[in-house]
Amino acid sequence: MEVIIKPNYEELSKYAAEIISRQIQEKPNSVLGLATGSTPEGLYKEIVRMRKEKALDFSKIVTFNLDEYYGLAIDSKQSYACFMHENLFKHININQENAHIPDGKIPLQEIENYCRQYENKIKENRGIDLQILGIGIDGHIGFNEPGSSLYSRTRLVVLDKTTIDTNWEKFFKKDGIAKENASSFAITMGIGTIFEAGRILLMASGKSKADIVAKFIEGPVTSQVPASFLQLHPNVSVILDEDAASKLQRYEHYKYSMGERKKLERK
Ligand code: F6R
């Protein structure tokens, strides 16, 4: 696992955007796995800037979002579909048919089949080249809450209380939605699904993430901290800002390795 520590959120976002831009330039028909939430907002802003200033081309890009709240209408303001449209899709030249997000309105009896189809679509597109992830303070990736199996696939899940509370504070409260009415279910790609991506980029920012970041990078691999499974994936980059990295025991080592790598690249 490669750990990169950037001075602040802005630098972290720029660094992640550079990686995506390189991926798109090297493979213009890349398949990207996308995340929502507050962490990738800066990354998407940066990508939109690259689209405007450098004409970064998304015309052949295919995307699959990790998750969607279950029970929210696609056009509801809190849906991840709306988030993606507002923060990214409406600003870039992606073919809307190539942008996939789980449908949070699928009838209950059709969900299993629908999730299988979502996975099949990823396979038909030859798999995800680069998957973007954030991390919840309970260690979730996608909406794979503690206890999720390494082999889990796309499915309907019940969100943890901490996740509902955090997301309500960040995304529902401002629109006057009562906590009882915030979504407590989601459709999420499984950890097994995420693991099939060629490369994974996890971003974490801020002091509130410091404890879980130290746990998932330096603690044991356990389903109680789903992100810790990433220790087993061969191609993971974790991009942190100073605050999120502040509780890593090997903080100095990671800083030192970044410097050494730079020296090597300059040679
Ligand atoms: C969102 C997702 C979640 C978030 C996580 C962190 O698509 O998959 O795992 O990445 O809840 O959210 P923020 O970035 O809001 O702290």
Word description of this protein:
- Helix 1 crosses helix 2.
- The model has no long low-confidence stretch (mean pLDDT 95).
- The strands form two sheets. Strands 1-10-9-6-2-3-5 form a seven-stranded parallel sheet.
- The chain is built from nine helices and ten strands.
- It has helices at residues 9-26, 41-54, 80-87, 111-124, 161-172, 191-195, 210-218, 242-245, 251-266; strands spanning 2-6, 31-34, 62-65, 67-69, 99-100, 130-133, 155-158, 185-188, 199-204, 236-241.
- The chain has a single domain, classed as 3-Layer(aba) Sandwich (Rossmann fold).
- The two termini are 24 Å apart.
- The chain is of the alpha/beta class and 267 residues long.
- Strand 2 (31-34), helix 2 (41-54) and strand 3 (62-65) form a beta-alpha-beta unit.
- Bound molecules: fructose -6-phosphate.
- Fructose -6-phosphate binds next to loops.
- Fructose -6-phosphate binds at residues 35-39, 66-67, 134-136, 140-143, 170.
User: Average pLDDT value?
Assistant: 95
CATH architecture: 3-Layer(aba) Sandwich
Backbone shape: globular
What value does the Rg take, in angstroms?
Answer: 18 Å
| Uncertain ranges | none
The first-level CATH class name: Alpha Beta
Structural class: alpha/beta
CATH fold annotation: Rossmann fold
In total, the number of domains comes to 1
State the strand order across the main sheet. Answer: 1-10-9-6-2-3-5
Along the chain, the helix and strand elements come as: EHEHEEHEHEEHEHEHEHH
State the end-to-end distance.
24 Å
How many strands, what sense, and barrel or not for the largest sheet? 7 strands, parallel
The ligands bound in this entry are:
fructose -6-phosphate
Q: Tell me the fraction of residues in β-strands, as a range.
A: 15-25%
Amount of helix: 25-40%
